[in-house]
Model the fold of this input.
Amino acid sequence: MYSTRIYYQDTDAGGVVYYANYLKFIEKSWFEYLMSIGISIPEWEAAGVYMIVKNVSLDLIESLRYGDTITVATDIFLVKNAYFMMSHRVIKDNKSTARCETKMVCIDKNGKPKRMPEDFRNKLIQNIKNGQQMRSSITRSVSRDS
Amino acid sequence: MYSTRIYYQDTDAGGVVYYANYLKFIEKSWFEYLMSIGISIPEWEAAGVYMIVKNVSLDLIESLRYGDTITVATDIFLVKNAYFMMSHRVIKDNKSTARCETKMVCIDKNGKPKRMPEDFRNKLIQNIKNGQQMRSSITRSVSRDS
Amino acid sequence: MYSTRIYYQDTDAGGVVYYANYLKFIEKSWFEYLMSIGISIPEWEAAGVYMIVKNVSLDLIESLRYGDTITVATDIFLVKNAYFMMSHRVIKDNKSTARCETKMVCIDKNGKPKRMPEDFRNKLIQNIKNGQQMRSSITRSVSRDS
Amino acid sequence: MYSTRIYYQDTDAGGVVYYANYLKFIEKSWFEYLMSIGISIPEWEAAGVYMIVKNVSLDLIESLRYGDTITVATDIFLVKNAYFMMSHRVIKDNKSTARCETKMVCIDKNGKPKRMPEDFRNKLIQNIKNGQQMRSSITRSVSRDS
Done:
């Protein structure tokens, strides 16, 4: 779990965290999460394997303010041949203040999609969190009826 | 239509625009679009009316690089009592390179949701782009089968 | 002259532009200024010539707020064999609200300092603004006695 | 000492940390440093005491790359009635890769400069690092002769 304080750089003149900056917390969380299960993105890149973000959905539930402390929890909930999906929760005081899903696609040096290497893919599969996919259909990006 | 060049600050070490920075282009686009239809967000804030982002979906189609020139096209496709939805396309050489949808919710100074003022809401309604909602169901955030 | 509005993304919870974001305005200004005198940084990079920032001084004079419109004026005031220096003013309503100086050093693909190509250097020299260097010694970065 | 990894969000298409992002590391470092000596900026703000950055000098010595781990060391080297100065070093593998100095000025809610409260100022004074000021005159912002 990635943990950080909210600094001025994360906020905007509305007094709360600027919406794009959630995606920065989330990058840090997935980087550290993947590292914790044995996947170093920089090392894979050195070997010619790149993961790029293809789709993102983000739901902001409760505002975050300067000086707050948050943790971000990242889970893997779907692994296919050429992509995988993660869900992320931004937590403050044991409450989810934001939810996010990201689809990451594997590409080669020239930007062409390619199969994830077996070792990379196996580590992802071993860490799939059951039940996540169901929740994911609930928290789908832009809800039209609230 | 908001237009900009891609600068170093927009890119990352992968050589392309960093995913969170799309949301920055999109904020600038909706600000200028709303201004062009007679809605100044800073003026409404001075009057105690705030619009916050509640949900975002982002689809990255094609990478953007340092020195590229893009335009962002913003349309309104749904207006309710307390929120409205916009779609955004990031265009390079007449091709969509990214798509985004945002749901904006009206709140008061204390963060409580509230009805949008009539004048604000009427200007939005007069500028709804027909046919956008249909497209929106296609470009729903995180596609699971591509 | 680069001109922009101040958006939420530029500000922080103090209600004003976040200090690091001045350097983003300034990058855009020097990019456009160099372009205007016939120097395209992306094209020179394609030819193996890179310019990196080596030193920066920044003086914040007056705060900028959400919705403000600013222009940034960039001038070249010193050109040597392997580096050149620019000064930048962030202007609102004809008043300087921030001043900055940057030293840019020429490097090759491996990060080694190298002479600037003659064509590149000549264009810089033809556009040196006289009198700038004098001012620069006044606005030196971190003043200790104010 | 604030410590972090370098993520994609910190870098640019040149493959290295983008120059403005150093100021973000440095904000985090001074926030945590001041916290460690008993000064919580958010708490002082709640009491109507604000510290703003007035001047910055930044010297980039060696590039930082995706996946690198850095620490930032912050020291106080000058405390006056209404402002104080800090120096910051960005360290990788026991080597300084960047140096920075910042002047912070005390203001009230309306942006007017004011004396720092005694308790605030005393804590700063008790933590002045001797010898820093001397070094500071050496690393003055934008050197003209290298």
